Amino acid sequence: MNAVNLLEFDLDGLTAFCEQLGEKRFRATQLFHWIHQKGASDFTLMSDLAKSLRDKLAGTATISALTVASEQASSDGTIKWLFDVGGGNAVETVFIPEDDRGTLCVSSQAGCAVGCRFCSTGHQGFSRNLSTGEIVAQLWFAEHHLRQRLRLAAGERAITNVVMMGMGEPLQNYAALVPSLRVMLDDHGYGLSRRRVTVSTSGVLPMIDRLRDDCPVALAVSLHAPNDTLRDDLVPLNRKYRIDELLAACQRYLDKAPRDFITFEYCMLDGVNDTPEHALQLVELVRDSIACKLNLIPFNPFPESGLKRSPRDRVTAFARILQDAGIVTTIRKTRGDDIDAACGQLAGEVQDRTRARERLSARAPIRIHRPGAAGGAGPKKQETKA
Ligand code: SAH
Ligand code: SF4
Q1: Ligand 1, closest atom to CA 345?
Q2: pLDDT tens per residue, range 371-385
Q3: 50: which residues sit within 8 A by CB, 6+ positions away?
Q4: φ, ψ at 266 (rounded to 5°)
């Protein structure tokens, strides 16, 4: 019989497992503490567990970390790990330290099936979902590794925030995602507040509703376009779930959300979605329909995308239009770009089972709007493919 990896369980799951071993429920809580609060992986060191239980565990269970394939540290303190998840796949996890917090950007899938045009994970295609244990292992490793590396005092936490913004679409891996969120939130686990755990989604609408009911945490929605025509092209999932339906789901989410707004992410692509007209459309779209904050992300380029980052002055002009309309808008700082750890640069390694590269390169080239060209709004020009 294969040993069970205890990182696969939230506290309820671990309790059921302990009961199968004939153990009382509180033993599961003790064990959960050892694993997640102390970072233990060796049952023999769990001194307050009976020897008989430790022996049983040694025969049936493991606490298995992921294999670190590489680590890169940025000059700004950002650290990126590449974890080997077997079968030729590797996923990335990024730690982003700030003065008042430590954020871990966690992957949910090897690759991604959504295939957004501006995302390097999307260009890689999809290989497989990560299990709960593989999602949790990213946090487990990072927290306990960083406590030592940063020489934190007893009781101090390295990671105060988790964002599901690494590789993959978390809401297309819902069954594994929810128990992993519960481990993050559990007071016996990492004890993170719901406001400090963010699920970012390209808009898997039915799962937004389910998340609201099952495990509401902060929600970020990758919008990237103010109309369906443009969003269809940038985020192909939009052809299934339209913007108005997506906003309605966001509105329903707010009923139970830990924050009273939804964050919309908007990746600024030169000449594609960054003109004043787009900003005004965005204002029209969200101003009276939903409590939200806009987070503008400077595009992090990668060669196959054929896209460019919007110039800084265009991003600030775009932000000003939103702000003048009363919409709270921030421009995301780019962190770790010297180690390709910024948003959308996480590529890991993926055995593509979806042939996304071929699909994406076969798609019609995106229509680029060149601001400042003759004729006001400017002539439309076809972008050449990379
Ligand atoms: N699949 C989820 C979460 C992972 S992507 C989602 O799409 O929301 C996390 C964020 O990075 C998303 O907002 C995504 O749109 C953004 N992103 C992807 N590629 C990017 C790039 N090349 N530059 C900047 N942001 C990017
Ligand atoms: Fe997938 Fe998100 Fe990248 Fe789109 S942006 S391809 S949903 S990881």
Answers
A1: 22
A2: 443 333 332 222 222
A3: none
A4: -145, 110
Q: Which of 292, 343, 345, 360 to mutate to test the pocket of ligand 1 (most atoms within 8 A of CB)?
A: 343
Contacts of range 82-89, beta carbons closer than 8 Å, 24 or more positions apart: 82/348, 82/349, 83/134, 83/137, 83/138, 83/141, 85/110, 85/130, 85/134, 87/127, 87/128, 87/351, 88/349, 88/351, 89/127, 89/128, 89/348, 89/349, 89/350, 89/351
pLDDT in tens, 81-125: 999 999 999 999 999 999 999 999 999 999 999 999 999 999 999
CA 111, 297, 233, 263 torsion: positive or negative? positive
Could you tell which of 169, 224, 363 is best to mutate to test the pocket of ligand 2, judged by most ligand atoms within 8 Å of the CB? 169
Query: Which one, of 169, 139, 136, lies nearest residue 10 by Cα?
Result: 136
Determine if ligand 1 sits within 6 Å of the CB of residue 343. yes
Work out the pLDDT band at 341, boundaries 50, 70, 90.
low
Which ligand 2 atom minimizes the distance to the CA of 122?
A: 6
Averaged over 180-188, what is the pLDDT? 98
Name beta bridge partners: 98: 101
Tell me whether residue 92 is one of the annotated catalytic residues: yes
Among all bound ligands, the one having the nearest atom to the CA of 294 is 1
**Active-site annotation holds for 343:** yes
